[in-house]
Write a structure and sequence with these properties.
Elements lengths: L2 H25 L7 H5 L17 H17 L7 H25 L3 H23 L16 H32 L9 H22 L3 H17 L4 H27 L8
Helix pairs in contact: 1-3, 1-4, 3-6, 4-5, 5-6, 6-8, 7-9, 8-9
């Protein structure tokens, strides 16, 4: 059995294991706690917390897992240099995802932050590796041609996944701090939220102008609107979240419009 075959099988095992463990986390549930109930323990103190429906994005992420697993298993993709480079990193991300879930369900919040950081780092590596040597939208000279199928089955799922884990990492960090008794003093909670939005907007702007990644940006809009809805009774949080969502939405439209003008699809670029 070749190394490429082992990698392809490992991707399938990791993807399925992650989906199964996440499903069991709420079906059993693990440690008699639902993931959503744990996340909502500090609602009102952790302002970076979207409404429950927002977490349905995991279903889309899992569909992306399967799409990627199928695509990288195709005989024609066995020697794809990008897929070779990201395969084992994806496996690491899956292990980190599973470990994070177990730690979170057993209330080991500080340790869960380490697992979340590893997951985020692994996804950043995957994201940047896919784009290393790949064409920018509108370019004709490429080092490694990227098919539309690869953009849809690999690039798009990882854009969505990284976008969500970007949001989830901040939420997890806030959860850890609040669970440890931190109140944000001397700054009020709303000001901390605004600071986090400012950082998120810087990241969104960088992604918009360097990667032109509509999918990543739309995930941020989805999350920010979810925070606004979750805290619609808090005027300051509502306004800050809507403003942040509108700014990212404007960036998304700008990127998409630029792509349409050039005759290119940027949603997966």
């Amino acid at each position: 059995m070749s190394g490429d075959t082992v990698r392809q099988i490992a991707v399938w095992v990791a993807a399925i294991a992650t989906i199964v463990v996440n499903a069991l986390a709420n079906a059993l549930p693990i440690n008699n706690q639902l993931t959503g109930d744990i996340a909502n323990q500090f609602k009102g103190q952790n302002l970076w917390l979207p409404a429950g429906y927002v977490f349905a994005i995991w279903g889309l992420i899992y569909v992306g897992f399967i799409a990627y697993a199928i695509f990288q298993s195709l005989p024609a993709q066995k020697d794809n240099p990008r897929l070779r480079r990201i395969g084992w990193v994806f496996v690491v991300s899956c292990v980190a995802n599973i470990v994070w879930l177990l730690l979170f369900h057993y209330n080991q919040f500080a340790l869960s932050m380490i697992a979340m950081a590893i997951l985020l780092l692994a996804l950043i590596v995957v994201y940047m590796t896919l784009r290393a040597g790949a064409p920018r939208p509108g370019e004709t000279t490429v080092k490694w041609p990227v098919s539309r199928a690869e953009r849809l089955a690999v690039w798009l799922p990882f854009s969505i996944y990284l976008g969500w884990i970007t949001v989830a990492t901040v939420a997890n960090a806030a959860h850890v701090l609040v669970a440890d008794g931190w109140t944000g003093q001397p700054l009020p909670a709303l000001l901390w939220l605004i600071i986090m939005y400012a950082v998120a907007l810087v990241i969104a702007t960088l992604v918009a102008f360097t990667q032109r990644d509509v999918a990543y940006l739309l995930v941020l809009v989805w999350a920010f609107v979810g925070i606004a809805i979750n805290y619609s009774n808090l005027t300051g949080v509502l306004i800050a979240s809507i403003v942040a969502a509108l700014i990212v939405a404007a960036l998304t439209i700008l990127v998409a419009a630029r792509g349409a003008w050039k005759g290119k699809t940027y949603a997966t670029a």
